[in-house]
TrEMBL record:
Reactions mediated catalytically: a phosphate monoester + H2O = an alcohol + phosphate
Stated name of the protein: Purple acid phosphatase
Entry similarity comment: Belongs to the metallophosphoesterase superfamily. Purple acid phosphatase family.
Organism this protein belongs to: Miscanthus lutarioriparius
Alphabetized SUPFAM superfamilies for the sequence: Metallo-dependent phosphatases, Purple acid phosphatase, N-terminal domain
E.C. no: 3.1.3.2
Subunit structure: Homodimer.
Molecular functions per Gene Ontology: acid phosphatase activity; metal ion binding
């Protein structure tokens, strides 16, 4: 198996194809900052204003950057650096024979100097309007010539800062280990020696209580390779998680993040709200959005690379627009595509904050979070950019027994979700396989009739062109081995995947055979699992095979997401919505009573009976 994976990696490198080489698509990786040289020009200048941001307590704000260069060119660009003392940062070269680089920290964002400045090449003067978010440190702007491959530092600006760079920001809700527990995770610049973190919360309009928070962080040496250990490194600050327990079903709660300083004063975030989960088995309208492979993008147009992740803004926009009709979000892997540039995790958590601060934002692990050679990941690729899962497992809470493994189950009313980790071995006999079987077998289908399996890579069926080119298969090799027997035995309604950046739905399928024809409505007893790929969250689209397999009922190469709605314990609606407009482009329903779930179908009946 390891030899086969290695061969695939070599082939991917040769072909330069698709998801294996997504690390090359991180916009910041275009800049060879380690090759930068100092070429300061006295007559060149760059200035930014205002110098103080967030005066109204907001965590994002806009700056205007004005610059001039006596010898302008199309290759000139402006980099945003944080902390502002980037030129004094020191680091070791990647190879011991190399000299330490002059600059060893990548910018957090960048833009060409002639962007919106058509006359720049003639006048040498221009300006940019850029959005900054609170990232626990001040900022400086630098003007470079020489393009991205041989950058020359021409001028450095004044410093810009937020009123309180250390303020608590970007809360992320997640389901706890029990149905009546909600967790709140956020980022700040306060260590536990400086301030005590907590959450003030309670039912809306009633008394509030204080719940303490635990604090985590990680250092450069926790990264497994470059760029995360080198030019992509940026201090992640402190990650705090508080557990809000004994919640009332469906009750509305308000909360705010707090830090108590040593002098007794308090630092507060703004107020947020969430609705507690329904009781397992509770019949009420329950709506869950699912997608993978979203990434992040800049609303000011910076960091663009072939519109690789620009569609992520549309996805978040449509979800925010419909947030009153959404109860939970599951992002099944390839979250930020930071790929070793740690500053991008702040950008991602800021982009999803309107969603994640209001409804549980559950995650799965993808190749761009975990994969790195010789670190125990199932695939030996370098897709994580040296992160090897550490930022993801620190910045997002999941109710797993072992957060480093990140497979877990979560219940929401009439749903049971079993979320696997495809970057760890899932084959029969492994710990993850045992978890999957326990998750599927332990659910009470009378209370939770809707059983959903989720994973990042396609362990089921996909007609994505990448699988054809790279692996000659319809999904991950060995993906279905062992697992499809579990899906059939325990009557899994849906298996949902990402990784392939498009949408596809199969017929109810088992062992490469459509047990039932594809349809927009299924009723009666369970026949086989329907497989859905929803990897079009925002990263560059994937293509399909030219031929349409007999089991592929609907496919669409566009950006979008899925939405599950449990109407009651016998009726389920699935919708595929496009990120461009939020409209429904595919849907199907399942109507099934408890007796239908219990009824026999292929390979899920007892082999013998005591009946006489």
């Amino acid at each position: 198996m390891r030899l086969l994976v290695a061969l695939w990696a070599v082939l991917a490198h040769i072909l330069g194809c698709a998801d294996v080489l997504h690390a090359g698509h991180q916009p910041l990786s275009r800049i060879a900052i380690e090759r930068a040289t100092a070429a300061l020009v006295d007559s060149a200048s760059i200035n930014a204003h205002p110098t103080v941001l967030g005066l109204k307590g907001q965590s994002s704000d806009w700056v205007v950057v004005e610059f001039s260069h006596p010898n302008p060119s199309n290759d000139d660009w402006v980099g945003v650096f944080s902390p502002s003392g980037f030129s004094s940062e020191t680091c070791q070269p990647e190879n011991w024979m190399d000299q330490p680089p002059y600059l060893c920290t990548a910018p957090i964002k960048f833009q060409y100097a002639n962007f919106t400045n058509d006359a720049y090449n003639k006048s040498g003067k221009g300006s940019l309007r850029l959005q900054l978010i609170n990232q626990r440190a001040d900022f400086a702007f630098a003007l470079f010539s020489g393009g991205f491959s041989a950058p020359k530092l021409i001028a450095v600006s004044n410093n810009v800062t937020f009123t309180n760079p250390k303020a608590p920001v970007y809360p992320r809700l997640a389901q706890g280990k029990s149905w009546n527990e909600m967790t709140v995770t956020w980022t700040s610049g306060y260590s536990i020696k400086e301030a005590v973190p907590f959450v003030e919360w309670g039912p809306k309009g009633r008394d509030r209580t204080l719940s303490p928070a635990g604090t985590l962080t990680f250092g450069r040496n926790s990264m497994c390779g470059s760029p995360a250990r080198t030019v992509g490194w940026r201090d992640p600050g402190y990650i705090h998680t508080s557990f809000l327990k004994e919640l009332w079903p469906d009750a509305l709660y308000t909360y705010r993040l707090g830090h108590r300083l040593s002098d007794g004063t308090h630092i507060w975030s703004k107020s947020y709200s969430f609705r507690a989960s329904p009781f397992p088995g509770q019949e009420s309208l329950q709506r869950v959005v699912i997608f993978g492979d979203m990434g992040k993008a800049e609303i000011d147009g910076s960091d663009e690379y072939g519109n690789y992740e620009q569609a992520s803004l549309n996805t978040t926009k449509q979800i925010i627009k419909d947030l009153e009709n959404i109860d939970m979000v599951i992002h099944i892997g390839d979250l930020s595509y930071a790929n070793g540039y740690l500053s991008q995790w702040d950008q991602f958590t800021e982009q999803i904050e309107p969603i994640a601060s209001t409804v549980p934002y559950m995650i799965g692990i993808g190749n761009h979070e975990r994969d790195w050679p010789d670190t125990g990941s199932f695939y030996g690729y370098n897709d994580s950019g040296g992160e090897c899962g550490v930022p993801t497992q620190t910045m997002f809470y999941v109710p797993a027994e072992n957060r480093a493994k990140s497979w877990y189950s979560t219940d929401y009313g009439m749903f049971r979700f079993c979320i696997a980790n495809t970057e760890e071995d899932w084959r029969p006999g492994t710990d993850q396989y045992k978890f999957i079987e326990h998750c599927l077998s332990s659910v009470d289908r009378q209370k939770q009739p809707w059983l959903i399996f989720l994973a990042h890579r396609v362990l089921g069926y996909s007609s994505g062109g990448w699988y054809e080119i790279m692996m000659g298969s319809y999904g991950e090799p060995m993906g279905r081995e062992g697992l499809q027997d579990l899906w059939q035995k325990y009557k899994v309604d849906l298996a949902v995947f990402g990784h392939i950046h498009s949408y596809e739905r199969t017929c109810p399928i088992y062992q490469n055979r459509c047990v039932q024809d594809g349809s927009n409505h299924y009723s009666g007893r369970f026949n086989a699992t329907i497989h859905v790929t929803v990897g079009g969250g925002g990263a560059s689209l994937s293509t399909f095979r030219n031929n349409v397999p007999y089991w592929s009922f609907f496919r669409d190469s566009d950006f979008g997401f899925g939405k599950l709605t449990a109407i009651n314990n016998s009726f389920l609606l699935f919708e595929y919505k496009k990120s461009l407009d939020g409209n429904v482009y595919d849907h199907f329903t399942i109507s099934r009573d408890y007796r239908d779930i219990m009824a026999c179908s292929i390979d899920n009946c007892p082999r013998s009976t005591l009946a006489v």
